[in-house]
Amino acid sequence: MATVGRALLIIALCVALYGVVASIYGARLGRPAWVASGRRAVYVVAALCTGAFAILELAFLRSDFSFATVASHSSTTTPTFYKAAAAWSSQEGSLMLWVWLLSMWSSLVLFLTRRRLRRVAPYATAVLLGFAAFFAALLVFLETPFGVLAAVPAEGNGLNPLLRHPSMMIHPPMLYSGYTLFAIPFAFAVGALITRQVGAADWIRSTRRFALGAWFFLGIGILLGARWSYAELGWGGYWAWDPVENASLLPWLTGTAFLHSIMIQEKRGMLKIWNVSLVLATGILSILGTFLVRSGILDSIHAFGASTLGVPFVILITIMIAGSIGLVVWRREALRSEHRLDSLLSREAIFLANNLVLVAMAFVVFWGTFWPLIAEALTGDRRALGPPWFDRYTVPLALVLVLLSGVGPVIAWRRATASNARRNFVVPLVATLGMGVLLAALGVAQRPLAFGMFLCGTFVLASVGQEFWRGVGVRRAMTGERPPAALFSLVTRNRRRYGGYLVHVGMAVLFVGVAASTAFNNARDVRLDVGQRVAVGNDVFTYVKPTSRISTTSDGRLEKISLGSVVTVSRDGRTLSTLRPERSYFPSRDATLGPLGRFFEGEATSEIGLKAGLRGDIWAAMTPDKQALRPQIEEGDRVFAAASGKLPDAVEARLLGQALRGIADRYVADPPPATFRLITSPLVTWIWLGAIIVFLGGLIAIWPGGRDAQRRTARARHAARVAKELGTPARGPQTVSATGSAPGADLG
Amino acid sequence: MVPARKRRIRLVVALSAAVLLAVALVYTSVNSSSKAVSPSQLVTAQVGQSYQLTGKVLDGSVQTTPDGVDFRVRDRDGSTSVPVSYTGVVSDAFREDREVIVNVRKEGSGFVGEHDSLITKCPSKFTEDATKSQKS
């Protein structure tokens, strides 16, 4: 099967290269048959990649250890769900996932645009197939997932236990969906520049939903990674400014900026150079993200040379950067704005400010991530920047960003008037002022940055809430619907707009959670004996008793040993929660560690004790003192070594199980002190809650409208075109005149 | 004000802000960053001096202590290693042969790790495939 998989990849590479040539040839010479053939090549590449990916997945599910990647990253004891997901835990598997997702998304967009964008699409096809050819070539020549082992092992290494977490298994497909979806607006922007079809109607409207999809999936991937870090890594944080985290954040930031600025191009024909630059930069950063993680360059600038992937990626990124700059310069005349910014007090100006803040954040993150390499290249010394450096810049920028996300939805297009300001800003400002007084009375103002974020968050909630309130009021006045029905029809009839508003609400909630949990958390690392207690903030943690557990697989083999604890948390003498943190040890395959010793020297994972609530989280992780068990383990190893070969395998396995049970029981009966990390942190749940609201809003904005909605949109576009030709501001059917707001404070 | 002049002023303000941000980034990154060193570069380390140590955890060197963990960090591509005594909880990813970064201070003949500074690189990333050499 490995040979078939490899053959499918080779054919996919050839078809992709053919498709690039056919698309460009057809477009240059005006041959529709060649263009259609190029588009069909994308479908064929998708089918071939699907076949290759299915073969790889089957190999993992069947534990076919003749595949080198299966032997390295799976085992017969790996649960079935994780076997399927283990395919993308390897370098070659993740690249396979990349090209498969790219081919599927490319097929979808080209199918949907098969009767539109006839001049742009062939070049976009060529670009998308160029990416597919690049990744297929990596898989064929450098990092094949179909390498086979000369001697097939009876058992594989297994999936790294740290990755055995549901969110970590969904995280890579989400991230890669985001990266590959951002390739689509990139490709269409290139096509638009080549053919001079740079108007909003030409390429932005056709690919906007894909850009929004990319933003949506990448955001989910980033949040799942943060959640995994919080729940699985045993350190209690969710963001560490790790280069791998930063790599995924960069295209998300520029993509967010793009989703806002294209609205200005759609409404006013402005910011064309900015928009194509943003989307090209986002596409490049998506490739850069994959490059950073996979090339080894983050270890050292010198490690990059040793990596097999470094040079090809640098060549690709160089071509993308040089080509993008060249195209924008070449088409600068066609990219001139149709209008100028009328006033700094307008929605356009707020969107522009929002864009500048997002791009500044992206630049800060980019600089901080690459600084070690820059310093090493310039001075020979590798230097690094820690989280405080990132926080110094990103926290104030985030404050401004959240504030702008409250101003944007309620300020008028073109020029805000005094009456507009009075009508839309009084309620949010009064709400913010009230919250400020309340929080100051509670002493929150002692942490000025967190205090500022709470005020900005309040402003956003009030301004967006006001928009919903007015919109529902107008619907009720028009139709007589009940409030829930009016809210439902308001949102479903203006999905982009109200989906976008929900995203703003979610981001405000998320940032409030980040600010509170960062500024007001209490954490302690302590070593406790059974019965000892320690105060963390206002709470008292008591180590009540130790626990132990031996887990087996469905076929009775030992999977892991868990040593844990029961910890009670009380406040003012009242028990708040009982936590059960534990540490699980997975057996090592290194036989030299001894029959018993290898069960305690393999990978270890923390199962945290967590009491999550809207007001705050109580979090505990523990590390048992294995040294206290060392004498029993060594004694057992000596006994088993002496009996080696003298006992039937089944008897030896049974005795081994009994010995491990004995050691685990000994740990409970005579527990040594254990080290705990104990954290109380307010509003962490708001981060996940905010993320859910953000993605709910994103989903509403992405969701395709029905025929009525499409007709309304078509009428609105026609009205906008007519208004533009007449030189007056557009007032299409989406204008909610009764609310006093201008239309289209929407996302996507 | 003449629109063209207004636009020019806005451009100058925007460019000035961008230049200021760039200068601040460069200045603070030069001043805030700590020098990352490998174990072999710490042979001549000064007592009391702080460093950001990078390397791999030496096989067989990890010893759990009442307050944390003692281990040796070796060069990524060499055998020179230095002892580190770290107080606090380590991440689940920490173990022998893993790439780590830790802020240390020379004390006596060894190094003391700064609390909460130990970072273990994600094991799913940057790793060469161990079975590659066996591939046919």
Give descriptors for this structure:
heterodimer; A: 748 residues; alpha+beta; 4 domains; 11 strands; 10% strand; globular; disordered C terminus; B: alpha+beta; 5-stranded mixed beta barrel; 8 strands; elongated
Task: Describe the overall structure.
Chain A has 748 residues and is α+β, with helices and mostly antiparallel strands. Chain A folds into four domains: 1-162, no CATH class; 165-373, no CATH class; 522-686, no CATH class; 716-748, no CATH class. Chain A is 63% helix and 10% strand. Chain A has helices at residues 2-29, 32-61, 68-73, 80-86, 91-112, 121-142, 166-195, 200-232, 243-268, 272-295, 303-306, 310-330, 347-379, 387-407, 418-441, 448-479, 483-493, 495-519, 630-643, 649-669, 684-702, 707-726, and strands spanning 382-384, 522-528, 533-536, 539-552, 558-571, 574-579, 582-585, 604-607, 609-611, 616-624, 674-682. Residues 300-305 and 729-748 of chain A have low confidence and may be disordered. Chain A is globular, with a radius of gyration of 29 Å. Chain A contains 22 helices and eleven strands. In chain A, a hairpin with a 5-residue loop joins strand 4 and strand 5 (558-571). In chain A, the strands form two sheets. In chain A, strands 3, 4, 5, 6, 7 and 8 form a six-stranded antiparallel beta sheet that branches. A four-stranded antiparallel beta sheet of chain A has the order 2-11-10-9, with helices on one face. In chain A, helix 1 (2-29) packs antiparallel against helix 2, helix 14 (387-407) packs parallel to helix 16 (448-479) and helix 16 (448-479) crosses helix 17. Chain B folds into two domains: 1-31; 35-120, OB fold (Dihydrolipoamide Acetyltransferase, E2P) (Beta Barrel). By secondary structure, chain B is an alpha+beta fold. The radius of gyration of chain B is 22 Å and the shape is elongated. A five-stranded mixed beta barrel of chain B has the order 2-4-5-7-6. Chain B contains one helix and eight strands, in the order αββββββββ. At the A-B interface, helix 3, helix 13, strand 1, helix 14 and strand 8 of A face helix 1, strand 1 and strand 3 of B. Strand 1 (382-384) of chain A pairs antiparallel with strand 1 of chain B, so a sheet runs across the interface.
